[in-house]
């Protein structure tokens, strides 16, 4: 196997819960609790799970928007989290993030041309006089027009704003892009356009993606491999085809059964999960999924299932597999 | 601004031009629709004009004392009558306006400068510096403003500070009272802005602290600063008037609206010579009201919360 572009090893991110007059730490939200995966160059890795399962925190912690609690992140073999600040800044152009809400991720007072171009100046990647051309090129590559250059973010539609977010990341010519639910805030009709844009850019620029979504059907089109997260832990991880044809974890099965299928005859039995996702501040003992798992046994309440290899690059954490 | 290439679709080109207005221009357009705010602004402008230009046309601008002419009621010669020393009340009112407005502006400028710098340092760098600045601000904030001003005013009288200097000291005192409020607002705005997603985007893009501060944070604090600045002029004018009214601020013969009312603080003046105290009273009242109305209008259109939460 070639060298992984990104390797996440036993990553943990616990947010302290502070309370009381003295603002003492009374506990932790275990948003990311011992997650490992690797992403090969050119691949798209999908991270799925219900809202609150810690997907965004994985993405943000990889990029050091949060400081990790423990674990390692290797980018092209470089231990990104061990680097001093100046070195981190130098690597920034290579790893970019696309936000779920493109509007709040754009400064309302900065014109689009400046918003996209400023990082180039900052990293010395373009001279002032060529800046405009570089930005116009990237706008065009993202399906926007030159007259958008001097506009403000509020003058765009949701889909266009997400194109802006993509353009802003793309202008730095990154190798790796984390897309945190980039289409969840958009109309269904526009989602497909943006997903197509992601695919096109991957082909033309050889990008590697970590694509985060709560919707398995979105991930299905785009990803080579998929990891399923629940309450900060990885439940199952496999190639797309394997996961969709032979899901092993009860949680994955439940998520898959919720995808609407166009041909009614093929309809899988719908597994409805009872209750809500528990709080990551106080996760269930044993298998974190046992409070909602239709197959849970007494053993599940006590023993944490190991995340283990069960087939060809197919990992799962469940006692019954 | 470049004209968009939408040949054959003129209505679209026009729209493209006008929607590209900056947030500033949009805000001004919105503000113009607020009749009350426009009236407030017009009154403030009028006040400044007549106070700074009016006395140039007055035959009584030298402020000469003329006891033979004392306590004249309003007449064609003296539109607002004369005072105890026979000086023209209208001329003095306008000259006092110069002082009061200048004191308001200058102490606003000073407290804004101190408050903004300290607020930004506090909110951006946090840590120990923030703790120190905010504790000092809290201290000044918890003690009510007027009593401190009175104590400082009394001290100035004790130390027999010359009248000319008192003017500057009053401005300084008002700024010392004023900056903590400014610093707090600026700091909390900085803290809110720091958490905005576009600041996280700036981190991911690897932007320097300098760019984050000057290109991303400050422009978003600026609207708030304008609103605070406007409102604090009104506050400063009011405080100066109160101070001077109690004889602790700017001293006669330098006129201010406050000490003009003070000069009429006996029953006879109050009952028989309303031209001595009604004009300065009204001047204070109307100016401060106008400033506050205009400031409120500004807040409505410039409040960053409104502009970004769409
Ligand atoms: N900055 C933060 N501080 C404290 N708790 C956080 C923070 N960010 C996320 N969390 C918590 O971590 C958990 C996972 O959140 P998140 O990563 O946003 O999940 P997802 O993206 O899968 O919806 C949630 O319980 C959330 O409340
Ligand atoms: S370990 Fe038990 S509770 Fe957890 S998913 Fe498997 S069967 Fe369900
Ligand atoms: Mg999320």
Automatic annotation (TrEMBL), chain A:
Signal peptide: none annotated. One of its GO terms (molecular function) is ATP binding. InterPro entries: AAA+_ATPase, ABC_transp_ATP-bind, ABC_transporter-like_ATP-bd, ABC_transporter-like_CS, Oligopep_ABC_C, P-loop_NTPase. Residues 6-256 form the ABC transporter domain. Keywords: ATP-binding, Nucleotide-binding, Transport. PROSITE patterns: ABC_TRANSPORTER_1, ABC_TRANSPORTER_2. SUPFAM superfamilies: P-loop containing nucleoside triphosphate hydrolases. It comes from the Bacteria. It holds the Pfam family oligo_HPY. PANTHER family: ABC TRANSPORTER, ATP-BINDING PROTEIN (PTHR43776:SF8), TRANSPORT ATP-BINDING PROTEIN (PTHR43776). Belongs to the ABC transporter superfamily. This is Peptide/nickel transport system ATP-binding protein. It comes from Paenibacillus lactis.
UniProtKB/TrEMBL annotation, chain B:
The chain crosses the membrane at residues 36-57, 99-124, 136-155, 167-186, 217-238, 275-295. This is Peptide/nickel transport system permease protein. The keyword Transmembrane applies. Pfam families: BPD_transp_1, OppC_N. It is found in: Cell membrane. Residues 97-295 form the ABC transmembrane type-1 domain. Keywords: Cell membrane, Membrane, Transmembrane, Transmembrane helix, Transport. It is a multi-pass membrane protein. Belongs to the binding-protein-dependent transport system permease family. It comes from the Bacteria. InterPro entries: BP-dependent_transpt_permease, MetI-like, MetI-like_sf, Oligopeptide_permease_AppC, OppC_N.
